[in-house]
Design goal:
The complex is a heterotrimer of chains A (292), B (237) and C (338). Chain A contains 11 helices and 1 strand. Chain A has 292 residues and is mainly alpha-helical. Chain B has a single domain, classed as Rossmann fold. Chain B has a 6-stranded mixed beta sheet with strand order 6-7-8-3-9-10, sandwiched between helices. In chain B, strands 2-1-4-5 form a 4-stranded antiparallel beta sheet, with helices on one face. Chain B is globular. Chain C has one domain (19-258). Chain C is built from 14 helices and 3 strands. Chain C is globular. The termini of chain C are far apart. The model of chain C is unreliable at 1-10 (pLDDT under 50). Classes of the chains: A mainly alpha (292), B alpha/beta (237), C mainly alpha (338). Chains A and C meet through helix 4, helix 9, helix 11 and strand 1 of A and strand 1, helix 5, helix 9, helix 11 and helix 13 of C. Strand 1 of chain A pairs parallel with strand 1 (6-9) of chain C.
Chain lengths: 292, 237, 338
């Protein structure tokens, strides 16, 4: 029993990574109604920017703020330049666009910063949290940041005009235009916000998984799984989903014999798929009623 | 009275199919006009063309300014509110959020708050349900919400597409009475597209009849209503 | 978080390609056929090998086209079926000494069954969710193939070496050339089968489901049957492609069949034109040759160059090669009139 509890707690700790990524994913989904495969790469690139700034002597929080601002702007620019022209193209073509973006960002990062692993500092230190062996102060900090982000997003969407406008634009673009909302800019804004959140996720994750161009792939997949599990329309669900995925991953590794690191991913995904078969809209998603 | 809205030689297309064939009409400021016609005649297309929601050629002028080339949201910001077919309610948001969305382009917070109160005066049932999800309202209530949302823009021109659709006659009467009041008291120019000709003609001052993408008849509502031939040929009663 | 439900009146996610437009005209088909038959006679063995792979990947993209463009189901898991087909063939040939040609139908049938079975739980999923499920399948496959318990058959991480067959009846042509023509015949056969499938009642059922599932079901189409059938057929064809791939490459190993392959096949489908069967070969050419071109342009930035080239393609022809073909047809039509 104690092993179980420990593994659950450890799962929550690692799950914070996925929760953070899942928030960025839900953000973009709210804005554009699909998933952006390149998001992990964009987060990785942002994290490298932060690292580079610190190499140049900028203190941690200064680098953090600059990186988040830069990522916000970059997200908007990428959307305006690369995806606005594809707005009328079929969805699958847009997906191909995400894949292309992935390829470009990954490759450029590899060229600029090469593939050797780098250390990324954490502002929270890495001593045991409250004396516990399972959660370090960094992981606790990460959970804290994720929850703070969640709260901020919640307030943004529920209580601000911009948040209301974004929700409207995502829900019913045509009706949104009929109240004067520029739905095209809402999409750009959504990209900016998702990129900013992604950069925060990257900076939280890098101290744990170490900084290198391929660091986000596994995280992204788990993040997708978490977002889908939680219900793509719910930021709260994304965070819960993240923690659950972390727990699934840990319990799978601990209790299913012969499952090494490689099989953890497909098994975790399979578990999530099973949940989806039972609850197709995810745990907290709004059931979608389809009308002919 | 100057023509607030002037439409000349309007042709509209859905892909390769042409839906409007050189439509022409005008609306005077302060008027309450109805556009009548059978299913598929082009009534909805006309409203959509005004808001640039469908590909069209020709000239549409609002207060002398050309509307072509402007995006839908910019046309709305000029003061044209459009209550679309099917109402376009944000069903997952509350009644009050829907009203706030109607005013999303406005900056005057105090004005918005007092306007919301005015909407509740016009439509008391909305006040009762103001924290409810809009999707849980009945058809008639959603229609009222849609009209209220449009009014939150403080529009100069309001376009309504088949507001009576799917509603019981008593409710439609009520709704039309309120529309008349809004037209007279708030000085909002109104263009109502309707299949239900009888009620629309009771409400409006002026009427146009559209058939296969062209205006075939125009006149005061009273004239059109009393002309038995027109009623039988174009309006079915 | 709320009980109210989102009501969606959906436009289909996959563009409808009118039935007539799903294939090439007769003239163009004959020209293509002539090219495919004659070119290998004039080039070196390595190029012939690449052309064989072109056909093989073309088959895999074709299979995806039937599934996604035809029945509207989005799959990122085709690499799993390809792998099963490849390994089935390899194991039959090397462990059980089965003749290479006979391994093809076996791979096809096994993969059909596998696809059909996968399609069953997938019925509850669509769009993003189906993508995730198929993605899970694709990531699982290489790991499953590496499992110790299967090693006696699969050769574990090292994989298996496959013997390349000689031309039959002592014909004086190289192994590569024989394999090419063998593959060509099979490809043509499957292509014709696919075209007819899409024109048939089943094909119409697929497309009805793609365009509007609820309406299709209301019309009496057994949606469950046709969706799983589409998965099965698609998996079966991919399996045959995998088997041919194993023979052509002379080797199967788990890391040859990763999610990269599934993503490449997806890109091939988009570049060729979703739902446009003839485009499959254009898509296949893209995924085989463009990465090489990218690497040729810049070794260090090959991924970035590839991404840029991909963007160029989708900006110019968002609907893929089909768009080019339609444009060509229009131009020819104008030419004829004047």
């Amino acid at each position: 029993m104690e092993l179980f509890t420990n593994q659950v707690l450890a799962g929550i700790a690692t799950g914070a990574i996925y929760a953070c990524m899942a928030l960025a994913i839900v953000m973009i989904y709210q804005a554009i109604d699909h998933l952006n495969f390149a998001q992990g790469e964009m987060a990785m690139f942002s994290t490298f920017i932060a690292w580079q700034l610190m190499q140049w002597g900028v203190p941690y929080w200064g680098a953090f703020v600059i990186t988040v601002a830069f990522s916000f702007a970059a997200g908007i620019i990428i959307e305006r330049l690369l995806f606005k022209p594809l707005a009328k193209a079929p969805i699958l073509t847009n997906v191909a666009g995400f894949i292309a973006l992935y390829s470009i960002v990954n490759s450029v990062a590899g060229l600029i910063w090469d593939f050797t692993i780098k250390q990324f500092p954490t502002p929270f230190g890495s001593s045991p949290f409250l004396g516990s062996q399972l959660i370090s102060t960094h992981q606790a900090g990460m959970i804290g940041v994720t929850l703070l982000l969640l709260l901020l997003l919640f307030f943004f969407f529920r209580f601000t005009r911009m948040g209301l406008a974004m929700r409207a634009a995502a829900a019913l673009p045509e009706s949104a235009r009929l109240v004067g909302i520029n739905t095209s800019w809402m999409i750009a804004l959504g990209w900016g916000m998702a990129a900013a959140i992604g950069s925060i996720a990257g900076m939280m994750i890098a101290p744990v998984v170490f900084l290198e161009p391929n660091m986000m792939l596994g995280v992204l997949i788990y993040g997708f799984a978490a977002a889908v599990l939680g219900g793509l329309t719910s930021p709260f669900g994304a965070v819960i989903g993240g923690f659950l995925v972390g727990i699934f991953e840990n319990l799978t590794g601990t209790y299913i014999p012969g499952v090494g690191n490689e099989l953890k991913l497909p098994i975790a995904l399979a578990l999530i798929v099973i949940v989806l078969v039972v609850k197709p809209a995810g745990l907290f998603g709004r059931p979608i009623v389809k009308r002919v | 009275m100057t023509a607030m809205l002037n439409i000349k030689d309007l042709r509209a297309y859905y892909g390769q199919v042409q839906a409007l064939h050189g439509l022409e009409f005008g609306l005077n400021e302060g008027s309450l006009t109805t556009l009548l016609g059978a299913n598929g005649a082009g009534k909805t297309t006309t409203l959509r063309a005004i808001c640039n929601m469908v590909r069209s050629t020709g000239s549409i002028e609002f207060d002398g300014a050309a509307l072509s080339g402007r995006s839908t949201e910019n046309i709305v910001r000029l003061g044209i509110a459009h209550v679309p077919q099917g109402r376009g309610t944000f069903t997952t948001m509350t009644v009050e959020e829907n009203l706030q969305l109607g005013a999303i382009t406005r900056r005057d917070r105090a004005g918005i708050v007092s306007d919301i109160e005015r909407m509740y005066d016009h439509f008391p049932v909305l006040k009762q349900r103001h924290t409810q999800q809009a999707g849980t309202l009945s058809g008639g209530e959603q229609q009222m919400l849609a009209v209220a949302r449009a009014l939150m823009l403080r529009p100069r021109l309001m376009l309504l597409d088949e507001p009576s659709f799917g509603l019981a006659p008593l409710i439609v009467r009520d709704l039309f009475r309120i529309l008349g009041k809004i037209n007279r008291e708030d000085k909002v120019t109104i263009l109502v597209v309707e299949q239900n000709a009888q009620l629309a003609l009771e409400l409006a001052d002026k009427a146009y009849v559209i058939e296969t993408g062209r205006i075939v008849m125009s006149g005061s509502a009273a004239e059109i209503a009393s002309n038995e031939d027109i009623r039988k040929s174009y309006l079915g009663y | 978080m709320s009980a109210a439900q989102e009501v969606v009146t959906e436009a289909p996610a996959i563009d409808a390609v009118p039935k007539r437009a799903m294939t090439l005209g007769y003239g163009t088909s004959l020209v293509m056929l002539a090219v495919l038959i004659l070119v290998p006679l004039f080039v070196k063995n390595f190029i012939i090998f690449q052309l064989t792979m072109l056909l093989i990947y073309g088959l895999a993209v074709l299979a995806l086209n039937i599934l996604t463009g035809g029945s509207g189901q989005f799959s990122l898991g085709q690499s799993a079926f390809y792998a099963v087909g490849a390994y089935t063939s390899a194991i039959l040939m090397e462990t059980f000494n089965v003749n290479y040609a006979l391994t093809l139908p076996v791979s096809g049938v096994i993969c059909f069954a596998f696809g059909f079975l996968f399609g069953l739980p997938a019925l509850r999923l669509s769009g993003i969710y189906l993508a995730l499920a198929t993605f899970a399948l694709a990531t699982a496959m290489p790991q499953l193939l590496k499992l110790n318990v299967f090693e006696p058959w699969t050769g574990g991480v090292q994989g298996l070496v496959v013997t390349k067959p000689d031309a039959p009846f002592g014909l004086p042509i190289s192994q590569d050339m024989w394999l090419y023509y063998f593959t060509l015949v099979i490809t043509i056969g499957i292509y014709i089968f696919s075209v007819n499938l899409l024109k048939s009642r089943s094909g119409r059922a697929f497309m009805a489901i793609r365009d509007n599932e609820i309406a299709a079901s209301a019309m009496g189409i057994d949606v469950a049957l046709y969706k799983t059938l589409a998965f099965g057929v698609s998996a079966g064809i991919t399996g045959v492609a995998g088997a041919l791939g194993a023979i052509a490459v002379q080797f199967v190993a788990p890391d040859s069949y990763t999610i990269q392959l599934a993503i490449s096949l997806f890109l091939g489908m988009v570049v060729g034109g979703v739902g446009w069967l003839p485009g499959s070969i254009v898509g296949s050419a893209f995924i085989i040759f463009v990465p090489n071109i990218a690497e040729g342009i810049s070794k260090g930035l090959s991924g970035a160059v590839f991404g840029v080239l991909l963007f160029l393609v989708i900006f110019l022809v968002p609907h893929g090669a089909r768009q080019v073909a339609v444009l060509g047809q229009q131009l020819i039509g104008k030419f004829r009139k004047s």
